[in-house]
Amino acid sequence: MKNNKIVFYPILAALLLGITFSLWACSRQNQTSKKGIGIGATVPLTGDLAAWGNREKNGILLAIDEVNAQRKPANKFKLHMEDTKSSPSVGVTVIQKLIDINKVKFVIGDVSSGITLAMAPIAERNHVLMLSPGASSPALTTAGDYIFRNWPSDVYDGADLAYAAKVKMGAHKVVVFNEDNTYSEGLADAFVAETKKINLSIVGRIRLSAKNTDYRSLLEKSRSFGGDLVFVAAHPSMSAQLFLQMKEMGMPQKRLGCVAIQGPEFTKFYPNASDIYFTTIPLDKKSNGVFRSFAKKYKKDRKSVV
Questions:
Q1: Strands, E assignment, 115-215
Q2: Nearest to 192 by CA among 210, 204, 180
Q3: Residue 234, φ and ψ in degrees, nearest 5
Q4: What is the pLDDT of residue 304?
Q5: Which residues sit opposite 9 in a β-bridge?
């Protein structure tokens, strides 16, 4: 896959810094606890988002260890981690459990926009501070006074993707595919909005169902639209299968994906992806000592803490 290096928001370093700061802020209100300070985490450890969720888990565990190493036993943070199973409805159930049973006042929220937005009203209603390390839906900006994230809105990612399509890839007419979920819809909306500003034409937009794995009929429909580039806003396996079927059908359009395609699920279906462009996170371990140290620690084997 080709990395145009337009988007620059280092998720791993930002996750560590954001969580560390938030843990400190939370601790200021919990100094009298004798059993430690409870913190919840809602993470998709299984399901379609498991690759992202397990990265989130590792970042959380690393942050917890580093902060706890500098604290007295009575003020250490106790982590309660729950698997959202990549499902908004499960997310609602587990955050309610964390609040009602574990009595947490702080939750490290999901990487998914849909799951985070589903949990947001519950956190807001209970005055529980929630920080998401990956949810990018523009709707989160107004989701509540207790809802935060350290990942930029899709308003910015969509603009960068549109810029990549026109300036870096030389596209003139684009067909947009997006999965029918909150993240993909929001990103595609932002992409389309930006194309109107830079005179890049959208000749068709097609929505994809998670229940479908054969996209040939939809690709035939897109072929009738014309266009010289296909942009896909979807999660790894869906994006990979659609791009692969494009290739098998001999469709010559250039192919642009989104940051969500990073992960083993994509290369499982599309192992030789040198013809795919996508925006990503260009972190330089050689010149950045902080990230170099973080990356070294991050790669160590971790065990789940529940």
A1: 129-132, 147-149, 173-179, 201-208
A2: 204
A3: -160, 170
A4: 41
A5: none
- Neighbour count for residue 185 (Cβ, 10 Å): 18
Confidence of residue 34 (pLDDT cuts 50, 70, 90): low
Residue 94, Cα to own-chain centre: how many angstroms? 19
The enclosing H or E element of 123 equals helix 113-125
- Cβ neighbors of 252 (< 8 A, separation 6 or more) are none
Look up residue 113 and give its DSSP letter: H
Residue at token pair 């996750």 = 15
Which amino acid does the sequence have at 278? F
> How many of the other CB atoms lie within 10 Å of CB of 233?
30
What distance lies between CA 161 and its chain's CA centroid? 16
Residue positions counted in the chain = 306
pTM for this predicted structure: 0.79
List, for residues 66-79, the tens digit of each pLDDT value.
Answer: 889 888 888 899 99
CA distances from 283 to 3, 13, 80, 176 (A): 12, 9, 30, 28
Q: What is the 3-state secondary structure (H, E, C) of 5-18?
A: CCCCCCHHHHHHHH
- Cα radius of gyration (the chain): 20
Average pLDDT over residues 197-215: 92
Task: Answer whether residue 38 shows pLDDT above 60.
Answer: yes
What DSSP state is assigned to residue 287?
A: T
- Widest pairwise Cα distance in the chain: 67
